[in-house]
Amino acid sequence: MEAATLSRIGLAGLAVMGQNLALNIAEKGFPISVYNRTTSKVDETLHRAHTEGPYPLTGHHTPRDFILSIQKPRSVIILVKAGAPVDQTIAALSEHMDPGDTIIDGGNEWYENTERRIVEANNKGLLYLGMGVSGGEEGARNGPSLMPGGSFEAYNNIKDIVEKVAAQVDDGPCVTYIGEGGSGNFVKMVHNGIEYGDMQLISEAYDVLKNVGGLSNAELAEIFDEWNRGELESFLIEITADIFKVKDEHGEGELVDKILDKTGMKGTGKWTVQQAAELSVAAPTIAASLDCRYLSGLKDERVEAAKVLEEAGLKEEVGAVGTGIDKKQLIDDVRQALYASKICSYAQGMNLLRAKSVEKNWNLNFGELARIWKGGCIIRAVFLDRIKKVYQRNPNLASLVVDPEFAKEMVQRQAAWRRVVGLAVSAGISTPGMCASLAYFDTYRRARLPVNLVQAQRDLFGAHTYERVDRPGAFHTEWTKLARKSK
Ligand code: NBP
């Protein structure tokens, strides 16, 4: 093949993400070769490149033809289902690749798989990147947030491409070299954990406004539209407003009320919580959102529990609380509670990233991470610009909670935050995310906690020793003997 006809880059795996990212890359003027195990998807992508373009995209039906159609050193993005399909795709493609070529896995991959594959690729002289891609179908097509980690040399080979295809915000493209090893996948995983937290908090705000405040879907749409013009401005608030406006084409009212209350999930939220536990980082808001997804899955059990507890005498308190409510005040309180809860949730996510960065020596730049999340991805929000500036001012900040500006905002909002949580608790409306955030705030900000008692208990039954507040050293006391002697 003539060098002039070779593509600049290749992409294998043409489901939702791959197809749209390939078209995005081609649209930006980078000739691209595409391949998929099931070849009908290759033809589908070619058709789209022709009708939406024409764009410089060529389709290939065998791994060999695909690889040989790319200019050297070759860069090949893989967007297939995470896990074994990635290994199988790498095996099929790498057979035809040469030393110096690069494999870029754009899937939601477990970071340790990426670290294993980096070593395997290096053994063949290949370079490797694990690149988190966020923004779903729309982001992939028009500008995602990209989180590439692994070989810096490989990153430099594709820097011009990813900087063009990523979402663009006021301070640059939503992509940066994240760090070595599996850091790109890890950062994407925590991004998803934060996304779980955001979605949970928004659903709680909806629950309180609907079931305590009595707001209709039309009113909710209006409120979320209004919130999207203020400090909460974000993709998730914007799409939530849209959701409330969609009518049910099969019946009365809005579609949102007809959706079964059972959430799906693909595992990145669970990994985030597992990693938080591994690293001894408290992430209660993210964990609460995961637990809520698990509980939502128990639909039949919940329906049964509602019956059993009603028979046991539990009364639905919601209506009773709803009658004496100042709607305007409630809406404003919920907005403030949501914002303050969100700060705590992001504090947890960023602290998890910091702990991992220290453990792995990744040297993550938190200001840059917040910046590349400002556009393209699901958690994109105006608020991330604030987080970026906070970490630019102080890269070693212990927690977002103690940044002077965020601290002030939380203090200003705490009365509203406590009112919402209190009201929800008395109405029997569970707000596990808001409660977890508030408890996190109240635990973190207290100079003294009641765990002196826990330490005493541990020392009593396990001789684990304790430290004292007034003198150094480890102490053990014969608690039971002393307590019973003093009787
Ligand atoms: P899927 O995760 O649904 O995977 C489908 C693709 O994997 C198809 O191209 C399929 O080929 C290929 N594949 C499978 Br399945 N097994 C294979 C094997 N053994 N060998 C070769 N190819 C195989 O696609 P997606 O939803 O586009 O997501 C791709 C990646 O991006 C995933 O890691 C996902 O978690 C991540 N992601 C998705 C989103 C989203 O919004 N969907 C957002 C962000 C990240 P076939 O056509 O021959 O079956």
What does this structure look like?
The protein has 487 residues and is α/β, with parallel strands linked by helices. The chain has 3 domains: 3-181, NAD(P)-binding Rossmann-like Domain (Rossmann fold, 3-Layer(aba) Sandwich), CATH 3.40.50; 188-444, Orthogonal Bundle (N-(1-d-carboxylethyl)-l-norvaline Dehydrogenase, domain 2), CATH 1.10.1040; 451-485, Single alpha-helices involved in coiled-coils or other helix-helix interfaces (Up-down Bundle), CATH 1.20.5.320. Helix content is 57%, strand content 8%. It is built from 21 helices and 9 strands. It has helices spanning 16-27, 40-52, 63-68, 84-94, 111-123, 136-142, 152-165, 183-211, 217-227, 235-245, 268-278, 284-297, 299-311, 318-323, 327-360, 366-372, 383-393, 404-427, 432-444, 451-462, 479-485, and strands at residues 9-12, 32-35, 57-60, 75-78, 102-105, 127-134, 145-150, 168-169, 172-173. The longest helix is centred in the last third of the chain and has 34 residues, at 327-360. The chain binds nicotinamide 8-bromo-adenine dinucleotide phosphate. Nicotinamide 8-bromo-adenine dinucleotide phosphate binds next to helix 1, helix 4, strand 6 and helix 6.
